[in-house]
């Protein structure tokens, strides 16, 4: 792994079809999915990712083993800061295809001392490092163990599966399976546009992913031991710009990998 200045690295082309929409959203700061606080479902169900987890707390029993956490398509999610500061986490790794997202995260969380002046170049990725945190800039679908530095005890998917095109879902799930350790857990949060017009319920991103689709995707994977729905909350549709949607739910699943 070599350390170079940011000007020397040629990252994934942000003009690619896959990233164009997101690049525009970041340039215009249209970040409707972003939350300023750790996600409530993380605080409620974090015990599936962190040993001896206490909701809202940033400490755990020192005798417990610590978790290595992965956050796909992380943007500038404050969930990563929560993980990095948690005593039960030894490292959190996030990946995004948009550099601006990662630079904004580093700027908004200076206490994590993320070095944006120099980067490491690993596989096809740029890597920004800080205290208990690494941020990868590049294509999620090119991820491998060299880029991530190994596998993970837990994965938080808060707005990732719903963001990708439906025809990429099988490939996405396959990569998650390659990244999770045996016995590890994925905390998956999706939206389910349950009632409305056909155009309203199928539009995206974010795309609707119902319980049947989650079970289809992960149930077909030979690395999955169990799929459990642990939460379901109906959201106020009026808070979202989703024409044609009459009822909207957030669903939470725990996907457990086989030992």
UniProtKB/TrEMBL annotation:
<keyword id="KW-0963">Cytoplasm</keyword>
<dbReference type="Pfam" id="PF05724">
    <property type="entry name" value="TPMT"/>
</dbReference>
<dbReference type="InterPro" id="IPR029063">
    <property type="entry name" value="SAM-dependent_MTases_sf"/>
</dbReference>
<dbReference type="GO" id="GO:0005737">
    <property type="term" value="C:cytoplasm"/>
</dbReference>
<dbReference type="GO" id="GO:0008119">
    <property type="term" value="F:thiopurine S-methyltransferase activity"/>
</dbReference>
<dbReference type="GO" id="GO:0032259">
    <property type="term" value="P:methylation"/>
</dbReference>
<keyword id="KW-0808">Transferase</keyword>
<comment type="similarity">
    <text>Belongs to the class I-like SAM-binding methyltransferase superfamily. TPMT family.</text>
</comment>
<keyword id="KW-0489">Methyltransferase</keyword>
<protein>
    <recommendedName>
        <fullName>thiopurine S-methyltransferase</fullName>
        <ecNumber>2.1.1.67</ecNumber>
    </recommendedName>
</protein>
<dbReference type="InterPro" id="IPR008854">
    <property type="entry name" value="TPMT"/>
</dbReference>
<keyword id="KW-0949">S-adenosyl-L-methionine</keyword>
């Amino acid at each position: 792994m070599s350390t170079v200045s940011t000007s020397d690295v040629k990252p994934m082309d942000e003009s690619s079809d896959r990233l164009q929409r997101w690049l525009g959203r970041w340039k215009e700061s249209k970040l409707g999915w972003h939350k300023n606080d750790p996600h409530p479902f993380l605080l409620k169900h974090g015990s599936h990712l962190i040993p001896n987890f206490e909701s809202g707390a940033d400490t755990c029993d020192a005798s417990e083993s610590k978790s290595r956490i992965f956050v796909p398509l992380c943007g500038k999610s404050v969930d990563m800061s929560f993980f990095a500061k948690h005593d039960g986490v030894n490292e959190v790794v996030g990946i995004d295809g948009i550099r601006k997202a990662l630079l904004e995260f580093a700027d908004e969380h200076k206490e994590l001392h993320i070095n944006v002046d120099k980067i490491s170049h690993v596989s096809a990725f740029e890597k920004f490092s800080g205290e208990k945190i690494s941020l990868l800039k590049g294509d999620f679908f090119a991820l491998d163990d060299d880029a991530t530095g190994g596998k993970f005890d837990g994965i938080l998917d808060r707005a990732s599966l719903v963001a990708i095109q439906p025809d990429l879902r099988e490939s996405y799930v396959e990569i998650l399976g390659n990244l999770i350790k045996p016995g590890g857990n994925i905390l998956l949060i999706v939206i389910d546009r349950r009632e409305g017009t056909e155009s309203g319920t199928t539009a995206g991103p974010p795309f609707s992913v119902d319980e049947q689709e989650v079970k289809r995707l992960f149930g077909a994977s030979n690395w999955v031991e169990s799929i459990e729905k642990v939460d379901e909350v109906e959201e106020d549709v009026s808070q979202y710009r989703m024409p044609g949607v009459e009822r909207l739910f957030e669903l939470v699943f725990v996907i457990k990998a086989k030992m």
